[in-house]
Write a structure and sequence with these properties.
Endolytic murein transglycosylase; mainly alpha; two-stranded antiparallel ribbon; transmembrane helix; cell wall biogenesis/degradation; single chain; 5 domains; transmembrane
C-alpha cells in the first residue's frame, strides 16, 4: 500500500471524500469498493439524502470568511428581530395602557363619579318642583354648580336612603359642595319658607294685605288671582270670601299668588270634608254656603270661642221665628259698608246694602269673613237655648251676655254703653 501525496496548498482543501478516494489498493475491485463506500458515507454526513450527481459531490465547503459573514448576518437578523419584537411589545403596552387609562376613567366616572369635597362656598337658591325625581333634582344641582356631577348626588341620596324624602320647595345651597352635604341641606327642615299667619275672621281684603306684606307681592296680584280657578267648591259660587281658610302657612319664595290662595282653599276643603259640611248642612235645612255665611257672622260677633255655639243658636232662633225676625247684626252691615266697627249708627242702619240685616230679612248674600274651624263647628253644632238677643257688654274683656227677653236686652245695651264711655 502506498500513501497519496499531501496537498501542497492548505488554502484549497479537498473534501474528505476526495482524500479517501485517492487511497489505492492492489486490486481494482477493492479500490472501487472503498471509494464508493466513502462517497456514500460522506454524503450521509453532509446531509445529502439523494445523489445529485458529481457536481454536488464535488462542491466545496464554505470558507471560514464565508462562515464568519454568515454568522454576522444571523446575528444582525436576530438583533433586528429582537428590536422589532421589543417595539411591538412597547406598542401593544402603549395601546393597552392608553385604553386601560381611558377604561379606568370611564369606569371611575360611572362607579366613582366626580364629587367636590367640603361644605362649598357662596349661596344659590334651588327650587325643587312638585313631583321632581332624585335624578331631576341632581341635574338641577349640577347645572347650578352645586355638585360636581348628578351621579354623585344620586349616589349620595341612595346612600342616605332619602330618595323619597325630597320635598318640593326652595332651598339655599352652596356652590361646589360635596354631594353628601347637598343631601343634608335638602332636608325639609332646611327649606326657605315664609311663615304667614292668617287670623280667624279676617276679611279677604285684609288677608290680601297680610299676604302681600309677607311675600313681597302686590295686593293687586292677589285680587287678580282670586278671580281665577282656585279649586273652590261649587257652592261657593265663585266667591273666595269665606273660603280662604285661616291658619299659619309656610310659603316658598317663588310661589305665585294663585298658588297661595289655592293652598288656602285646599285647606278649607280638607276642613269641610273632615266636618262633613254638606251632609250636616242638609240636616239643618241649609246649604253649605248658608252654613259658611252663618259661621262668618258667628266668628265676627263672638267675644270668645265659648260664646260661638250660643251666638249660632241666636241666629238660628231668629231665622226660625214666625214672622221671621231681622238678624240686626252690626257685623254684616259694616261689611256691606266696607267699614269696621261693633256698633252701627242709626244713619248706617238705613243703608240699602244687601248686607244690611237691619233692613233685609234672612241671611246676607254670602260670608262676611273667613271663619275658622271653631266657628264652623259651632254653626254645625249650636248650643241649646231660647236666646234671641246677645250683647257684648265689655268688648275689652270679651264678655257677651245672652237673653230671650227684649227688656233684658235693653238693660244689656245700657251696660255696654257704660263700659264704652
Amino acid at each position: 500500500m502506498s500513501r497519496a501525496a499531501e496537498p501542497s496548498d492548505q488554502s484549497d482543501p479537498h473534501p474528505p471524500s476526495v482524500l479517501l478516494s485517492r487511497l489505492t489498493w492492489s486490486g481494482s475491485d477493492r479500490e472501487i469498493g472503498l471509494r464508493t463506500m466513502n462517497d456514500l458515507d460522506m454524503d450521509s454526513l453532509l446531509g445529502g439524502a439523494e445523489d445529485e450527481g458529481p457536481s454536488r459531490r464535488r462542491s466545496r465547503a464554505p470558507s471560514r470568511r464565508q462562515q464568519a459573514r454568515g454568522r454576522k448576518r444571523r446575528r444582525r437578523t436576530r438583533r433586528k428581530g429582537a428590536a422589532a419584537s421589543l417595539i411591538a411589545v412597547v406598542v401593544i403596552v402603549c395601546i393597552l395602557g392608553g385604553g386601560g387609562y381611558l377604561a379606568y376613567n370611564w369606569v371611575r366616572g360611572v362607579m366613582i363619579p366626580k364629587d367636590y369635597t367640603g361644605q362649598g362656598t357662596g349661596e344659590v337658591t334651588i327650587e325643587i318642583a312638585e313631583g321632581a325625581s332624585a335624578g331631576e333634582v341632581a341635574q338641577t344641582l349640577e347645572e347650578q354648580g352645586v355638585v360636581a356631577s348628578a351621579r354623585a348626588f344620586v349616589n349620595a341620596v341612595d346612600a342616605a336612603g332619602k330618595g323619597a324624602s325630597l320635598q318640593p320647595g326652595s332651598y339655599v345651597m352652596r356652590k361646589q359642595m360635596s354631594a353628601a352635604a347637598a343631601v343634608v341641606l335638602l332636608d325639609p327642615e332646611h327649606q326657605v319658607l315664609r311663615k304667614v299667619t292668617i287670623p280667624e275672621g279676617n276679611r279677604l281684603s285684609k288677608i290680601f294685605t297680610t299676604l302681600a306684606t309677607a311675600t313681597g307681592k302686590s295686593v293687586d296680584e292677589f285680587k287678580e288671582a282670586a278671580r281665577g280657578d282656585l279649586g273652590l267648591p261649587e257652592y261657593a259660587k265663585g266667591k273666595l270670601e269665606g273660603y280662604a281658610f285661616p291658619a299659619t302657612y309656610q310659603f316658598p319664595p317663588n310661589i305665585s299668588a294663585s298658588q297661595i290662595l289655592t293652598r288656602m282653599v285646599d285647606r278649607f276643603n280638607e276642613t269641610a270634608a273632615k266636618d262633613d259640611l254638606e251632609a250636616e248642612a242638609g240636616k239643618r235645612g241649609f246649604s253649605p254656603h248658608d252654613i259658611m255665611t252663618i259661621a262668618s257672622i258667628v266668628q265676627a260677633e263672638s267675644g270668645s270661642q265659648d260664646d260661638m255655639p250660643k251666638v249660632a243658636r241666636v241666629i238660628y232662633n231668629r231665622l226660625a221665628l214666625k214672622p221671621p225676625m231681622l238678624l240686626q247684626m252690626d257685623s254684616t252691615l259694616m261689611y256691606g259698608l266696607n267699614k269696621y266697627g261693633i256698633a252701627a249708627t242709626n244713619a248706617e242702619t238705613q243703608s240699602d246694602s244687601k248686607y244690611n240685616t237691619y233692613k233685609f230679612h234672612g241671611l246676607p248674600p254670602g260670608p262676611i269673613s273667613n271663619p275658622g274651624d271653631h266657628a264652623i263647628q259651632a254653626t254645625l253644632h249650636p248650643a241649646k237655648g231660647d236666646w234671641i238677643y246677645f250683647v257684648t257688654t265689655d268688648p275689652a274683656k270679651g264678655i257677651t251676655k245672652f237673653t230671650a227677653s227684649e227688656d233684658e236686652f235693653w238693660k244689656l245695651r245700657e251696660e255696654f254703653n257704660r263700659n264704652n264711655q
